[in-house]
Structures are given as structure tokens and as C-alpha cells.
Design a protein that fits this description.
The complex is a heterodimer of chains A (232) and B (245). Chain A is mostly helical and 232 residues long. Chain A has one domain: Orthogonal Bundle (MetI-like fold), CATH 1.10.3720.10. Helices cover 79% and strands 0% of the residues of chain A. Chain A is built from 9 helices and no strands. In chain A, helix 8 runs antiparallel to helix 9. Chain A is elongated. With 245 residues, chain B is an alpha/beta fold. Chain B has one domain: Rossmann fold (3-Layer(aba) Sandwich). Chain B is 37% helix and 24% strand. In chain B, strands 6-7-8-3-9-10 form a 6-stranded mixed β-sheet, with helices on both faces. Chain B has a 4-stranded antiparallel β-sheet with strand order 2-1-4-5, covered by helices on one side. In chain B, a hairpin with a 2-residue loop joins strand 4 and strand 5. In chain B, helix 3 crosses helix 4, helix 3 packs parallel to helix 5 and helix 4 packs across helix 5. Chain B is globular, with a radius of gyration of 18 Å. The two termini of chain B are 35 Å apart. The mean pLDDT of chain B is 94. The chains are: A mainly alpha (232), B alpha/beta (245). At the A-B interface, helix 6 and helix 7 of A face helix 2, strand 6, helix 3 and helix 5 of B.
């Protein structure tokens, strides 16, 4: 055996996974896909975190009947796989005359799931603040709301940054699930391009795109964690 | 003269467990009244009823002659007149000493930042901690933290200060600094109601000492009377257990 065969294997590997010609051809749709993923991701994060915080703040008011609904919501959406929620919203809701775009369905589904987790995390954070903090604030004349806003939440938020960052990253990555409802986000674009070109390079580009999008996010999360601890 | 704080027949129970069996007590203006008693005697609960952190089932709490247990009383306003100092300090860890002291000034009394800071620094000066204004609680010793806690109450210019075992969580060598501040407050005419086990301080600084046991006031009087010639057996036993007699 001469050494022509291993060389050609390497060539095949390079031309299948790192084919510059294919990469150039699909660069533009890939960038469009990245833009959509970023937009969708930001929408999900904003909606999910705000909704989750609001639910947790309502829950700490301890209104029994209201809390039954919040707990049920949180449990259901933490239990359901996000993919199932997306498919339900996109394929089942049209039967009740409630059609939505692939973007809306994915955004709504991921926001609901993220808000369910966020609510639980914030709730646990608020419960972990010692009772004495409430008492000290109330004893200086701060009302329930002012105590929550100025004393309890700032501490709860700082405490919950690590689990919150992890959960947010995990769910925002779920934008890739939008591909099942034909949303033109990164994964969908790259897998379509890959079939069309008969070449795996677009999938590698897709993976790179996710790294480019999410590594800064992970680093930002780490920075927030250190930035938000108070001096001891 | 009308007392700064008056408790009338306070009763409080947690379920079947009665903690206060009808306690009446009067704290005259500019006096330091000391409550002593074994743990579980209801003295902390009594103190916490004075700013309604605990709500009594019946009875009245009169601050400056006004019953604050009545419906329609603005509790947040009352609580600014009745300061409270806690055993575990309960400082806000995410704020500097000055931030702790000025929070209620800014958010309840709606002072602008400059004025609140000026008032806050004055309060910190009274407890000797002007130089620690920008430190976070975690950077302060226990004694310093407790003095910030006192300053946080003082900043609101209360009519009366409640102390709930203010030195119990402190290392022995740090107790003195807190007691010194309390002594100075007394000299400046502050009305104080103190729950504490610092018998030496009670003897030296209190105007009136109250002994509580099993949810009732058993005996009260001047420090000399209570410590040197206790009448009730339970008080004698309590003092003996502390090695005070």
C-alpha cells in the first residue's frame, strides 16, 4: 500500500467538512439564520426572564388561589419538553383558529418554558433571604413592596445569577428547535444547505455559528456573577 | 407626663401555646427600661409587639398616647417612631453602612440623596462609625455591625428604641462598644426598652427593671430593688442561675 489512500481520505474529510467553495456559497443565508437566531434568542430571554420575575413577585404575595395557578404553570412548563410546546402551538393551535408564525410559536414556547424555570429560581432565591431582612426593613417603615424592591430582590437576584444564566443558556439554545416548524434559524438553514450541496460544510458552519453566538453569552454570565457579588 | 410607650393587657398565643398572658407595662419618656427573664418567658415577643412585628390578639400598644393596634393606623409611619435593633443585626449585605442607614430616609421619608447622606452620616457619628460609612457589613466586626444597626434606627429620629438582645450574638470583647453607645443614648435622653442578659449593664444604666416569666411580669422596680432584694422566688432562682446573687 502506498500513502495515496490516507491522503485522499484526509482530502475527502477536508472537502466534506471544511469546503471553502461551499462555505462561500452559503455564507449569506447562514448569516441571515444567525441574525434570526440572535433576534429570537433575545426575545425569548427578555420575555422569559421578565415573566418569570413577575410570577415570582406575585407568588411571594402568598395569595393561595393565585399561587395554585402559578405553581401549576411552573410545574407543567418545566415538565414539558420545549419541542412539544412548539409543535403544539404551531400544528395544533390552528385547529382552534389560532394560527401563528413559526417565529411566534418558537418564541412563545421557549418564553413560557424559560419563565417557568425563572419563576422557580427567583422564588427559591427570595425564600433564601433571611426573615430578619424583611423585619429590619419593615421596622424602619418600608412597606411590603419597598422591602421587596430595595432589600429582598437585589439580594435574591445576585444569589440566583449562576442558576439563572445556566438555565437561560440552555433554553435559548432551544431556538434550534424552531427548525422543526421550518423557522429559518441557524440549524434549519445549515441542514437545508447541507442537503442541497451534498456536503457537510454548512453543518460545521452552523456549529461554529452557535459557538460564536453563545460563547460570549457564557462569558457574559461569568462576568455578571463576579460583578454582582458584594464585598465581604 | 404621658409615657412614650404603654402596653395594656397584651395577650398573644401561637395556637394553643399562650406566650403573653395579659402584660401591661409603661415606659416613661427618656428612661431606659430593661426586661430580663429566662428564655421562653415571652420577653422578645413582648418587644416585637411594640412595633407590631408580632400582632397581639388583644390589648393595646400606645405610642405617645396613640393606640397603634387600631385599624386604620399607618403602621409604616408608626414604625419610624419606634426603632428596633436586632440580635442578629439584620443589616442589608448589599448596601454600604451609609446605604443601610439612609435607605428608609430615601425611600420612606423621600429625602434627596444629599440630605439623606448628611443625616445618615450624623447617625453614624453618634455610634462612632463615620469612617466606616462606605464599608459593607461583611467588612465590619460584629460590634460595628450592631452599631450600624443602631444608627439605622437613630437616623429616623425615633421616639423610642427597642433593643432585642443587642449583644447576644457578639464576641465578649465587642459587647462593650455597643453598651457604650447605649449608655450615651441614654444620657442624650433617648427612651429605650431593652431585652438583654447584660445584668451588669442593667444594674448600672437601667431606670427600671422588669422580670418576666411564663408570659407575665412577675416583678419590677428599680435595679437595686430587683437585683438586691428580689421578692419572688422565681426571680431569686433566675438571678441565682446567672450568678448575680
Amino acid at each position: 500500500m502506498n500513502n495515496a489512500a490516507p491522503l485522499s481520505t484526509l482530502d475527502r474529510f477536508v472537502s466534506s467538512f471544511f469546503n471553502t467553495e461551499v462555505a462561500a456559497r452559503y455564507l449569506e443565508p447562514m448569516l441571515d439564520g444567525m441574525l434570526l437566531t440572535v433576534g429570537l434568542g433575545l426575545c425569548v430571554i427578555a420575555t422569559g426572564l421578565v415573566m418569570g420575575l413577575m410570577l415570582a413577585v406575585v407568588r411571594i404575595q402568598h395569595v393561595k388561589l393565585v399561587n395554585v395557578f402559578i405553581v401549576a404553570f411552573a410545574d407543567i412548563f418545566r415538565a414539558l419538553p420545549p419541542l412539544v410546546v412548539i409543535i403544539l402551538l404551531f400544528f395544533a393551535f390552528p385547529y382552534i383558529e389560532l394560527s401563528m408564525s413559526a417565529f411566534t410559536a418558537t418564541w412563545l414556547a421557549l418564553s413560557l418554558v424559560l419563565s417557568a424555570f425563572t419563576e422557580e429560581i427567583f422564588w427559591a432565591g427570595m425564600l433564601a433571604i433571611p426573615k430578619g431582612q424583611w423585619e429590619a426593613a419593615r421596622s424602619t417603615g418600608l412597606g411590603r413592596w419597598a422591602t421587596l424592591v430595595h432589600v429582598i430582590l437585589p439580594q435574591a437576584v445576585r444569589m440566583t445569577v449562576p442558576p439563572l444564566t445556566n438555565r437561560t443558556i440552555a433554553i435559548t439554545k432551544g431556538t434550534a428547535l424552531g427548525s422543526v416548524v421550518a423557522l429559518h434559524e441557524v440549524l434549519n438553514v445549515s441542514s437545508a444547505a447541507s442537503s442541497e450541496a451534498g456536503n457537510a460544510t454548512p453543518l460545521v458552519m452552523g456549529a461554529l455559528a452557535y459557538l460564536i453566538l453563545f460563547i460570549p453569552f457564557v462569558v457574559l454570565g461569568r462576568w455578571v456573577e463576579t460583578r454582582f457579588t458584594w464585598k465581604r | 407626663m404621658r409615657p412614650a410607650l404603654e402596653l395594656r393587657d397584651l395577650r398573644k398565643a401561637y395556637g394553643p401555646l399562650a406566650v403573653l398572658h395579659g402584660v401591661s407595662l409603661s415606659v416613661p419618656s427618656s428612661q431606659l427600661v430593661f426586661i430580663i427573664g429566662p428564655s421562653g418567658s415571652g420577653k422578645s415577643t413582648l418587644l416585637r409587639c411594640c412595633n407590631l412585628l408580632e400582632v397581639p390578639q388583644s390589648g393595646a400598644v400606645l405610642v405617645d398616647g396613640k393606640d397603634i393596634t387600631l385599624a386604620g393606623v399607618n403602621l409604616n409611619e408608626v414604625r419610624q417612631q419606634v426603632g428596633m435593633v436586632f440580635q442578629s443585626f439584620n443589616l442589608y449585605p448589599h448596601m454600604t453602612a451609609l446605604g443601610n442607614v439612609t435607605l428608609a430616609l430615601r425611600k420612606v421619608q423621600k429625602m434627596d440623596k444629599a440630605q439623606a447622606d448628611a443625616e445618615g452620616l450624623q447617625a453614624l457619628a453618634r455610634v462612632g462609625l463615620t469612617d466606616k460609612a462606605q464599608n459593607y457589613p461583611g467588612q465590619l466586626s460584629g460590634g460595628q455591625q450592631q452599631r450600624v444597626g443602631i444608627a439605622r434606627s437613630l437616623a429616623l429620629k425615633p421616639k423610642i428604641l427597642l433593643f432585642d438582645e443587642p449583644t447576644s450574638a457578639l464576641d465578649p470583647e465587642l459587647v462593650g462598644s455597643v453598651l457604650q453607645v447605649m449608655r450615651e443614648l441614654r444620657e442624650s435622653g433617648m427612651t429605650m426598652l431593652v431585652v438583654s442578659h447584660e445584668m451588669g449593664f442593667a444594674r448600672a444604666a437601667a431606670d427600671h427593671v422588669v422580670f418576666m416569666d411564663q408570659g407575665q411580669i412577675v416583678e419590677q422596680g428599680s435595679p437595686q430593688a430587683v437585683f438586691d432584694s428580689p421578692q419572688h422566688l422565681r426571680l431569686r432562682e433566675f438571678l441565682a442561675s446567672l450568678g448575680q446573687r
